[in-house]
Design a protein that fits this description.
The chain is an alpha/beta fold and 253 residues long. Helix content is 47%, strand content 14%. Strands 7-6-5-4-3-2-1-8 form an eight-stranded parallel beta sheet. It is globular, with a radius of gyration of 17 Å.
Length: 253
Amino acid sequence: MIVSGNWKMREDHVEALKLVQTLGSLLHGSGLPKGQEVSIHPPFTSLRTVQTAIESDRVPVALGAQTCHVDDSEPCTGEVSAEMLARLHVSYVIAGHSERRARCGETDEIVRSKLDAIYRHGMRPILCVGETLAERQDGSAPAKVRRQLVAALGGRPAQAVAAAVIAYEPIWAIGTGQTATREDVEEMCSAIRDEVARLVGAGAAASTRIQYGGSVTAETSELLLGVENVDGFLVGGASLDAGRFVDIVLASA
């Protein structure tokens, strides 16, 4: 299982330090369940602060980033390369989040190039895939997600795909308070596993972890716990409250 906290454009470096220290205290107190992995994804401006806190306080979480640029060194004002992230000991990088696909014009081709950069520097991608409400209603959701998977993972070695995390995001549930039903999640995560198996074989597909992301709370995680092919959660707003986030981590174990 892997639970990831996406802080999005929240928490400056002072707030981030307080949050990671509180998170560390709670996790040290409760103990991280065996087989459970946690990653946190602060804004770029807080990465160095959070990295230092994780390492000095031995917080049992992996450092993650929210995106990266496709190139290693180019005159791209305002961008951050995967190489820079790797030097900060980042382990996971989110790629293709629905907000970036919709607001920043990230195409499937751009998302694939970002995965290339992430792999190139020894990090693991958290690849986001998912459908809009219209696509859910017209029955095209599975086909949409399969296309996104093929675009990002097609032609890659099985070992690389098995190292990835795939986050299923029903776009209509992000930040809305709505949650997909167990049946919806099971259908989509099963389709994801089947497509990965078609691309790289059943063995690698079985090792690929699939998260659910969409207004995740402790109650949501308990509701979806045990759903076939759900191996964790990508948490947004709830990850900004250390207590609530730890509740989700413990509920998911």
